[in-house]
């Protein structure tokens, strides 16, 4: 009989999961949104049957993680444990909240987050070992989001404090969400339309390349909140002195400085990756194109740009994930977005309100990264064959 072998990463995952399940608190109960909370263990936060089931699933998943087991089994164990956690925290909210009490608040405690991280790490490790095709990764993401949406629509999480904060701000939440997405995507589109031509120009004109990339590098070193502040004065002046500027939304505070700052931050990855992508085009491909009489424009459109596209797309992926996060800071200058809830929560010492802004931001960034990584791999068809060889 073959001896069991322990997995090194699995040992770390097991330690985290067991600590989260048996040592750290699972949920926090507060009589209202501003008073100090009372932490509850898994056994105290859940009905007896539920706590036994959840702890049993955690222990089984830990055993799978701890030993060298097939990647499919590790992935299944991680997803079952994550689903149990998701359902369990909703049950805990219902169990801990007194009947007809609208003031009490129940939120996940450190043990929940530790277990969520541990089993998320187990799922990521299993997916890395399986190396699924890009389309499969997108399907997995869609299934996870569909499961979370089903829980939300079924009302299983309605007792959680973050959902109670959401319920009192439904219209505001979606309005700020639209602003957040508009800022992130709008600045990305503008940077792509400007950055790719600049990158092509830098590739063609070497003397321009060093100077322009140096300026863009300098912009990247400016802290985001400082850049937002720097833009207030010039945009305010434009709004006052340029006819029609204020009518189209240009002001010293609000969306305009946030959009311009995100646009400036976005330029370096787009320009630099365009230069690197074009520089990486094989010389033989260009020589062959010249040999059949292709013009510079035909070579750029038909040969260089398609070969450089995956690298350029990598820069766009960096920008999108970066901008989704940076758009949160826009709330400090009246730009809106999910940062409104984050900073309101910080000011009111209301962690659940902070999470109302932070969680959708993280989900958007994580989802965008997975989708664009898959698209990049699909745009590089020879990668998987090369790895297999």
TrEMBL record:
Q: Which residues form a coiled coil?
A: none
Kindly list the residue ranges recorded as spanning the membrane: 9-28, 48-68, 75-97, 109-128, 135-157, 181-202, 214-238, 258-279, 300-320, 326-346, 353-376
Q: Does the keyword Cell inner membrane apply?
A: no
The record places domain ABC transmembrane type-1 at 177-372
Q: Which Pfam families match?
A: BPD_transp_1
Q: Which InterPro entries match?
A: ABC_transp_perm/SBD (IPR051204), MetI-like (IPR000515), MetI-like_sf (IPR035906)
Which SUPFAM superfamilies does this UniProt record tie to the protein? Answer: MetI-like (SSF161098)
**Membrane topology note:** Multi-pass membrane protein
Origin superkingdom: Bacteria
Query: Which keywords, in A-to-Z order, does the entry hold?
Result: Membrane, Plasmid, Transmembrane, Transmembrane helix, Transport
Location(s) in or outside the cell: Cell membrane
* Protein family according to the UniProt entry: Belongs to the binding-protein-dependent transport system permease family.
Q: What is this protein called?
A: ABC transporter permease
What species is given as this protein's source? Ensifer adhaerens
């Amino acid at each position: 009989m073959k001896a069991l072998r322990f997995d090194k990463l699995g040992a770390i995952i097991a330690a985290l999961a067991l600590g989260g399940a048996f040592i750290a608190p699972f949920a926090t109960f507060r009589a209202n949104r501003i008073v100090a909370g009372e932490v509850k263990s898994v056994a105290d936060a859940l009905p007896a049957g539920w706590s036994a089931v959840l702890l049993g699933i955690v222990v089984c998943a830990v055993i799978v993680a701890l030993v060298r087991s097939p990647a499919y089994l590790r992935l299944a164990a991680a997803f079952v444990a994550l689903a149990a956690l998701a359902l369990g925290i909703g049950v805990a909210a219902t169990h801990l909240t007194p009947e007809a009490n609208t003031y009490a608040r129940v939120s996940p405690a450190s043990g929940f987050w530790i277990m969520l991280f541990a089993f998320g790490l187990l799922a990521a490790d299993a997916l890395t070992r399986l190396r699924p095709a890009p389309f499969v990764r997108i399907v997995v993401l869609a299934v996870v989001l569909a499961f979370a949406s089903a829980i939300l629509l079924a009302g299983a999480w309605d007792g959680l404090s973050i959902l109670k904060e959401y319920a009192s701000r439904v219209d505001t939440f979606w309005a700020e969400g639209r602003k957040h997405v508009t800022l992130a995507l709008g600045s990305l589109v503008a940077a792509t339309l400007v950055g790719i031509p600049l990158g092509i120009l830098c590739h063609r004109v070497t003397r321009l390349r060093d100077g322009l990339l140096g300026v863009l590098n300098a912009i990247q070193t400016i802290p985001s909140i400082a850049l937002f502040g720097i833009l207030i004065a010039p945009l305010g002046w434009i709004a006052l002195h340029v006819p029609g500027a204020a009518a189209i939304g240009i002001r010293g505070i609000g969306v305009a400085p946030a959009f311009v700052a995100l646009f400036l931050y976005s330029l370096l990855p787009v320009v630099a990756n365009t230069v690197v992508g074009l520089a990486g085009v094989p010389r033989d491909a260009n020589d062959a194109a010249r040999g059949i009489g292709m013009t510079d424009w035909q070579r750029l459109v038909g040969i260089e740009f398609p070969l450089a596209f995956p690298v350029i797309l990598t820069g766009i992926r960096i920008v999108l994930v970066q901008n989704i996060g940076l758009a949160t800071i826009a709330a400090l200058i009246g730009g809106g977005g999910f940062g409104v809830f984050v900073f309101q929560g910080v000011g009111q010492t209301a962690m659940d309100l902070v999470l109302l802004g932070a969680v959708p931001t993280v989900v958007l960034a994580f989802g965008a990264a997975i989708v664009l990584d898959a698209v990049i791999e699909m745009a590089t068809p020879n990668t998987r064959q090369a790895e297999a060889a």
